[in-house]
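Protocol step 4 of 6: record predicted structures for both targets in the notebook before any analysis. Target 1:
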Amino acid sequence: MANPKILEQKQQIIDEIKENVQNANSVVLFDYRGLTDEEIKELKSELRKVDSRYKVYKNTLILRAMHDLNVSIDEHLNGPTAVAFSNDQIAPIKVLSDFMKTHKVVTLKVGLVDNEITNTETLEKLANIPSRDGLLTMLAGGMMAIPKDLAICLDLYAKKLEENN
């Protein structure tokens, strides 16, 4: 029989995973095998910049926590697994996607975005969405184009009326 102290420690970790998943809008599981300590520090630093957390857990503990939350990701828990948690739905996905461009050993496994299981194809699509600031800039540009075009049209119309008089 397992040592009660060890079981209690494992349960604390399971509870920590559950709490992190419940409090996060985005959870990304990825394979980090092949990264050096320096590269892991670099990744953690990049994730911290977007207010995300990085943690490595045993697959069995992740599995138990996910089962408690009624989330089925069993088939994605092969090999070492790191988890990124964030309140932002897109930020950790973007950071990991950008990091993967220079560190080919990192691979995305699965994600939970707003408590929905998200496969790697969808994660890649989400990574290509512009940032919030970028989207707001695009919106402002679109909104400014309408009055600008109206002003040009009115100016041309006014010049045409002056020519006719």
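Target 2:
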Amino acid sequence: MDVTIYHNPACGTSRNTLALIRHAGIEPTVIDYLKTPPSRDELAQMIRDAGLSVREAIRAKETHYEELGLNDASVTDDQLLNAMLKHPILINRPFVVTPKGTRLSRPSEAVLDILPANAFKGAFVKEDGEKVLDEEGRRLV
């Protein structure tokens, strides 16, 4: 299965999502989006395909969000996209693209919806100790 993850290695949710993909026996294309951000068209497409608004796809917890005045409701989608491209840290993560769909994998187990259900063999536990898959590879959360 062809899988792409827009990854931030400093983010626990992103690391857990990548680990879940690999637990399914899939070696994804890993794009460190802080170093190699998607194009405007790619970003807009991922957001649409994930069923999100641009505002839902922006990382509102990031310092730049308030500093740039992006919390103002009058800021347009185009302005938000421009900010995300200029400051990729504002792109919420991780986005995962598979033939089964696109997800913003927050929480990380959201990626399970777009991976083959029968691919998981054995338990999976997140970095924080939360159990996601049981010993049979069945989803717990």
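Step 5 preliminary note on target 2. Helices lie at 12-23, 40-49, 54-57, 63-67, 77-86. The chain has one domain: 4-133.
Proceed to step 6 after PI sign-off.
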